[in-house]
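Hello forum,

I keep getting stuck at the same step: I have a sequence, I want structure tokens, and every attempt I make locally crashes halfway through. Rather than fight my setup again tonight, could one of you with a working pipeline run this one for me? It's a single chain of 943 residues.
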Amino acid sequence: MALPYAAADKKRSALHRLTLRQMFLIAVVLGLLIPALLITLVGFSAQRDKLTQGLETDQRRLLDIVSLGMQEPLWNLSRQAGSPLLASVMDDARVIAIRVTDTQSNTVFLSALRSERRIGSVAFVQKPVLYRGEEIGQVSIEFDTEHLAIELNSQLKNLILLVLAQLALSGLLIFWLLQSRFFRPMQTLTEQATQLAGLKLDEPFAWSRGDELGRLGNHLEWTRAELKRLIDELRAKTLALESDMARRREVEEALRRSEGKYRELFWSNLDGIVISSLDGQVLDANPAFLNLMCYSLDQLKLQNFWTLVASDSEPVERFNLDNKVMRFGYCDDFEAAYINRLGNPVPVSVKTVAMRDAGGRISAVWRMVRDISERREAEERMQLASKVFENTVEGIMITDPDLRIRSVNRAFSKITGYSEDEVLGKKPSVLSSGRHEQPFYESMWQLLSDAGAWQGEVWNRRKDGEVYPEWLAINAVRGAAGEITHYVAVFSDLSERKAADERIQFLAHFDVLTNLPNRAHMQDRAELAIQNAVRDHHKLALLLLDLDRFKTINESLGHSAGDALLQAATERIKRIFPQTGMLARQGGDEFIMLLPVLAEPAEAAAVAEAVRESFAEAFDAHGHRLTITPSIGISVFPDDGRDFETLVRNADAAMYLAKSSGRNSYKFYTADLNARAREILAIESQLRFALERDEFVLHYQPLVDMLTGRVVGAEALIRWQHPNLGLIGPAGFIQVAEERGFIVQIGNWVIREACRQLAEWLARGLPKMTVSVNLSALQFRQQDLTAVIEDALTEYGLSGDCLDVEVTETVVMEDAEATLAAIKRIKAMGLSLSIDDFGTGYSSLSYLKRFKADKLKIDRSFVRDIPGDSDDAAITRAIINMAKYLNMQVVAEGVETREQWDFLAGEGCDLVQGYLVAKPMPAAEFATRYGETPGVELAELGL
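Reply #2:
Ran it on my machine without issues. Output:
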């Protein structure tokens, strides 16, 4: 029975022999390995189920395709019509054979068989072919499932490799953390504890950690410091006690030796001596003390000593008497103030000695008093001069007649970098920069010798080698006989002032953010280039570049990201731009490029195209991967202008043409652009005040359910009721509003106005419906968008399901993560989301699935030519089917004909809007038309 206990003891002994490092590593390996194995098994099972489900889905889809596609050929017994479908299905490598059987004749109508043989297992599926409710045939398909096993093996290998890599990385990371945060500090603690036990207390224990080990280390340091302090104090007190005892013996011995000479010293001493009893009664005083205090001896004896002491000095006198004289028999020099017979204070230095009787008891006190009035005044003058010398901001250097440095102040060391010890005894030439020739110094010393002073600007060198300018003034100091005893040099550093002057010059001609020339500098260079072009009879070109949608990035990601993007764009352009040209920043996101010599306009076009292509690669700005494009306008001298201002104005007009033509392009100036530029300028200037003047209105276009004809909603479309130009559609001002930064305010007004109008309709008894509002890219990126929507709904007492937010797919795809966060906030309020103009941008089906939109709106460009255009019909049909699978409603825009209605209804479209139903109309007309009967009679539309 003892064996099991012995084995257990042996096992515990083995565990106790393990170090902390080994125990931690065993725990880490077990903690990582077991979860990794479980993750591998679960992941492989999930991948196997996913691949199996995918194969089954593909089998059903192909079977449905063949079954539907064989209806017409089988009914018409047209093998030629059905053969292409079988050939296209056989393109799938997993299909082994297809057989279509005619159930009427019980014969094989069509079949296809892959020539090569398959090794793996085979899956067999079949489905009847129905035509008008009648089974007319049977479709059978054989699938090869060997690829499923191959894919599973590949997935298992990848999963195992990934888990092993994660295990290795995690193990290294955990070992590094344990080594740096535990093992090494524990070793350090052990070594420090050993030093503490051996009383090796000179070196401090440095700990900067804030965890438990750091606090333990700090406690060890506190213990070391306290032990060292106690030992040092004990040692110092022992030495002080020995010293005091020795001095006491010396004083007593000196008193005994000097007793015979007392009277001689007392009467002849130049310092005042006064003897008083312990209670302050004056017993005697020598002539020096009597003269100092303006008393006779008889007058003084009538005074108590403490009446002679100034009130602020009495505490010091009493303290020294009680704590030094009465204890040790004497007191070293200390300063005090006495009051003479005239009532004037007299500063004195006092040394006190106890007088003892025959029994050794202290019976009186002997004070030696020296007048220090002159010394005080001299010290005050010296202190003032020293403070001025040390605290002046100018550097001061004093040399002897041989030009050897005797003293420098703190400002000298601060300016030159040399400490006082490094320059004492050396000559000022240690600071020489080498910029001045010998005649300069000869002229300086000649003037100094003649006039005794010199001042001017000098370049000297600091200790670190930096050359700097200084303003130097040297004066010769002469003695009583007129000889030169010293030279005093006072100097101030001019580096900051010169740097400020250079900075001012830089700011006057260059841009701070990009270090490019600014517009003023560019204008000077351009005017010089124009003069050269006139003289040499050649052309030059001016290119104006503007970054497309920069305001969106700047206002959504912040100005720091915008600045980083501008700097990156500058470097990108500089790499491409010819060295003979000049690049400048005009301001904001606009750059000016000057080509001073131009053989033909095509050269300018080539430069513009090269710059445009350089923007194809995305930019990295503060952790964001950003894609931005340029719009470039080109004007040519002398065809498009003969001065700088005209060339810039015409290039600006050409640049706006490039923007209005789709951006990311360049355009040359043409004469008719001036009219368009003036029109844009007029729109911009009046658009600033359109909101204040309440010139915007909303028109509403009904949204109709195709099955019932019921109006279920309306899209709010903005119009500008211009006082002079009349009603302007969004195409006339929205782009200008986006470019000039007005779109957010306009968009917020649309939200509030749409909510107000819907609340008014509901109050009048109109049936509940949804109003759709369009959001711009910039508005969608605003952090306060949800607050604006929530405030509008709350103000008018509406629930979130009354509002539908429409954004284009381009806006949705620009920044997926930010968009997803914004959509979550919107949908949390109960709003629905519609993807507008679907199919015209760069759609991503994976993103579309993540965004959980409620509606897809088919763009009118696809609806316009259906059903006649087969491509548009196929695209529309695909969008509808895709939306159904994603549980989204489909809205068709721009429906104008009965044929379009019939096609969309047949394909399963849910909602339509367009001129066939109604044009956009004012709110009052909408309420009148759909207030009582919220729908349309399909018969009225010819349906």
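DSSP finds 32 helices and 31 strands in the chain. If your local run keeps crashing, start a new thread with the error log.
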